[in-house]
Specification:
3 copies of one chain form a homotrimer. By secondary structure, chain A is an alpha/beta fold. Helices cover 54% and strands 7% of the residues of chain A.
């Protein structure tokens, strides 16, 4: 927000004029960019098919023919559709050796085989093409609003031209990010079209799982009670059942964060090398572990909220009160059950500690935090603390379950409680991890991860073995 | 923190010496800067009116006359007040072509019409002036302490000199940030004097609103009960009333985040163009939406805490107990009211979900997070999730209200409960938004936002329509 | 996560080839780096003692003798142990003027007196040594996984070579961070070996303190009740006692964040100058204040969770119920104690506000947040809000205590409750701070902090007094 604020002075009247920049295309984005450039002290000249029409041009800028405009500047911003690039070919000569800035975007990912910038570069071999500004919105150029638009990805094969463009980006109060050669253009053009690509699978999976558990619980608790006991517990679907879904999904997702690491370890042990690629599904899985973990944290957070409001709920208060009244009327006071006290306190405490570590993991996965720790620290938190969190949350669920086992009505229609399903994967992960840390298994695995191979082709001259290395959990 | 740590080795004894840097002014900041430069392997020479006095100079540095000092280095750091710059004019010749680094600050924002650096540049036309180091504190230079001081804004018209200075900044373990030409000097000099400029209005407004609701509630609940029923509920001002203020303020502020977007949309529809400026108050409002939202989140967070402690409060426990006892003595057990159960669970659940999404919004507005998402993702979260949050929180309040309507004593002295006020703006925003997403209204609006105009002056040659664009909510 | 994603396209087949890069050493890291370089369009040639063995070389790369490899490229990456560097001396001639990239790490901090890179530079005086890539893991090079590995620290004495290497780093999709001259090599080599260096003392101290309080509380509550009253409260160790440890440790740690600032102020007042160094223990202490504060926040967070689950605990529910039943059976209803209501509400509210501000402090200490505020804002939050937090939390504890004093069994075995210990340091800090803000003390202190000295050696020509300055709290 300071940034936004700090740009304002730039808008004030400027004594000196900077170089002239030419913009092809008087469309919305071309106009917005020109507007901002003028603001920041550049002279702007537009190249247009119809120069006479200059109604919407930011004042201070001029509109002339493409040729005239191109002659007036070394930097030409091509703010036209890829479809219109063709007209540039007629300008080969006047554009020779000049910097062409491609700002275009496509309508959908991988719309064309090659990126617009590479297409332009191929069309104009004598000009220096730089990709930039495509992630910036016309609106934010005018108002300097969105944080999300501060970054401007820049790429190009000619470093000098790239540097020139990055200087312009900076003086507009934006942050240039050098993505290297023009090869990066495709990814840069795809970037603004993505919608949380890495989050898709984790979120779909968790929603599907939630739906399944919801239906299962409705049958088990609502329908059962209505049919068998003629009791109306439909209102369970508001809090009681969600508060069963959340912990179960959270625990399963958390376990799924560490399961691929286990698979990888087994695969490496079995193959006796780390130099054969994992199957794609495993690679995919490993790449979205962070997202899996954060979705799990979200569910855990909801579980905590749902749990903490329990004593506020009218239904719960009514149940407690009627229990007290029932004692009062039957003239008895149930004694304190020490084991009960141990039990309830124990699994609640385990849950609290698990959630606490979970939040810690979440914080360290914030970009600014994870960038400020080194590899060893990141691994320590994400691996050791991660497994500790998984263990605590699993114990929490086991404890909760243990308690349930005590009371009678645990298996309506022989349907086990959902928490039992939630325990399967976590237990598998923890047991397997337990075996993997046995020295007899850990030693060869570590060796393999350090590049050693069961049937070595040669003795490595220099195995730079101090380099940080991946472990099953990271 | 690693960074702090990582600077230490630099302080160790250094084999090679770097270039010589000259500092004019032996004041506190001049000394601190020199101290650090010596630490990092530069030779430092001070220029002073009174060279013989070198008591406080960091050891290793020398003090000579201004002229002698200037001759020994190409980079002269001017660590003196703007008021003292005049003495530099006599050094025009010796400083010709050299880099003058202006590190000065002012006492208040816009103290002078021009920035100190521009003033210096104007006074010394033959030298290259670079603005830097003004955001760094003398203390952090000596101890390398504060995160807040890592960034050093640098600006100047001569790129070579700027690069030289940025290299020095880097080797001091600080992070240079190129702000472009010397035009940015004014904003850089104003920067360290600001105190949360964008936060002023949101915070004042919320505090004012809180005060009003506080007084209103005191009259309605405390005074009324004392006067009419002779009951002492003064202790309500500690938690009960704050827990009415927080949700109300939070909801109103959240609605105010989206109201300006609605106004903007209507204005654009009415004018049929996006190219006429909004009134200033609307621009101002739109620029502090993020701050409004975060203040709202703070209030919501307090509301959650105040609510969760309800069952711990002695007064509440007492009320619950006496209700039970009253049943016990009258020998009855009030039956479970299914509708009551639905009700209490429903509005609590809505609140939980609303708060959950609200926290999500808050997290995505962290700089490091919002920088790592693209425009489309940022808009998705801030706009769609934002409106969903507003809808959920409004429903939560309506639900809460619905419950209240049931009990009798809702209108002491005909004063409606505060939550009723809190519903006005959110409902207006939601209703208007509901109309704005009608195709018949949405289509022209989108067109306008893409640069289309009702009375077009010309046909845009190339409307780069794939560029991300502002929507009412972002 | 976008980043990870955005690297993928780079891996696709590439039309143009970039320059040739030579890698000495076919160890794990050498191979991984080569693999990635080939991916990104570089031609890679390995230098090896045994060229014929090229089994594990990434396809596309070739293996030849060291001499041949060195001749084919201007950039040679030395992926061998420091121990093997000696063989390079025989290549003095062929490596003359070329860039040697040292990627090595050591096994423990300060393993050698000089850094590997400086050692290499000293051995190869005619080559340009650049330190880079040592913080990157072989694994992340192959999979592009970890956020923690995005940053690549680069340092070297020759800027041109450094720029070349940084360009390569960028095109691998990593973020180069220029750390200046080769002097920084030692810190860069130590970096990946650190494990939260600044966190060690705060964490050890808090764990020690927790242990002491735990034992003390076990004796006071569990053992005492078992011995004297023959009651089994062993289950207190699960939640009740932890919920005594957390607030106490949190409050003490928070006070310890501000205590060193008080010491510093007194020391400066006593010495009448800021230019004599603090004792090392004080410097150390001041440098880990941020960590102290965050550990305190963690304990406070646990305290909040432990407190909010109170009404859910079976033991608590049992106690409440039996209290109600006891009234029911004795046919009485205890009246509402207004003072009791005031009391319980007051200290709870103080706790909520304290925790709220504490969370605010925690958020502002996130790297990305603290980098976006200026010095004045940072100081405002960390100093003023910090002291307000300390005051609120102390009042919260006093309030809680006040309540305890009421009931009889406060001193089993004459052991005072732990919260009493927790009040000592906070009260000392607050009282001293109270005196320090007396004008008569604050004025000279501020003057000293601005460089003034009681026995000045000379009149400073220009005390750049507007520069932000350290205060006792920052």
């Amino acid at each position: 927000m300071e940034k936004t604020n700090m740009m304002v002075p730039l808008a004030s009247d400027l004594p000196v004029k900077k170089e002239t920049i030419c913009i092809f295309g008087t469309g919305d984005f071309g106009r917005s960019l020109g507007y901002r450039l003028v603001q920041c002290g550049y002279s702007v000249v537009y190249g247009s098919r119809s120069p006479q029409v200059s109604g919407l041009i930011p004042q201070g800028a001029t509109v002339v023919s493409h040729t005239d405009a191109a002659e007036m500047s070394d930097i030409i911003i091509i703010a036209v559709h890829r479809g219109h690039y063709s007209f540039l070919e007629s300008l080969q000569e006047v554009l020779r050796g000049k910097v062409l800035v491609d700002v275009s975007n496509n309508l959908k990912i991988n719309q064309f085989s090659d990126s617009n910038a590479e297409y332009l570069a191929h069309m104009m071999p004598n000009s220096k093409v730089v990709k930039a500004f495509n992630t910036v919105s016309a609106w934010s150029l005018q108002s300097g609003g969105l944080d999300a638009n501060r970054q401007v990805f820049v790429c190009g094969d000619d470093n000098m031209s790239k540097e020139k463009v990055m200087e312009i980006v900076r003086s507009l109060g934006l942050t240039p990010l050098d993505k290297g050669s023009l090869l990066a253009a495709k990814e840069i053009e795809n970037y603004p079209l993505q919608l949380f690509p890495m989050w898709k699978y984790p979120i779909y999976f968790s929603l599907g799982l939630s739906l399944f558990i919801f239906i299962y619980s409705v049958i088990r608790d609502v329908v059962y009670n209505r049919v068998e006991k003629n009791k109306d517990f439909a209102f369970f679907i508001v809090i009681s059942i969600p508060n069963r879904i959340c912990p179960v999904v959270a625990l399963i997702l958390l376990a799924l964060v560490y399961l691929p690491g286990i698979f990888a370890a087994i695969l490496q042990l079995y193959r006796g090398t780390k130099y054969s690629r994992f199957p794609d599904w495993l690679d995919q899985w490993m790449l979205c572990r962070k997202q899996l973990g954060l979705v799990a944290l979200a569910y855990a957070f909801l579980h905590v909220l749902y749990t903490l409001v329990i004593p506020i709920r009218y239904y719960v208060r009514w149940k407690v009160n009627s229990y007290v009244l029932e004692q009062a009327f039957s003239n008895r006071t149930d004694p304190l059950s020490i084991s009960g006290a141990w039990h309830s306190d124990a699994y609640v405490a385990l849950g609290i500690l698990g959630f606490f570590l979970f939040v810690l993991l979440g914080i360290t996965s914030l970009p600014s935090v994870s960038n400020s720790v080194n590899w060893r620290e990141f691994r320590f938190v994400q691996s050791y603390l991660g497994y500790l969190t998984l263990a605590l949350c699993t114990a929490h669920t086991l404890g909760y379950g243990g308690k349930r086992f005590l009371n009678a009505r645990t298996y309506p229609w022989f349907l086990p409680a959902v928490y039992i399903f939630s325990l399967i994967i976590p237990c598998i992960v923890l047991v397997m991890k337990f075996f993997l840390i046995f020295p007899c298994i850990d030693r060869p695995l570590t060796a393999i991860r350090q590049g050693w191979e069961r049937k070595p082709k040669y003795i490595s001259q220099s195995n730079n073995s101090e380099h940080p290395r991946e472990t099953s959990a990271v």
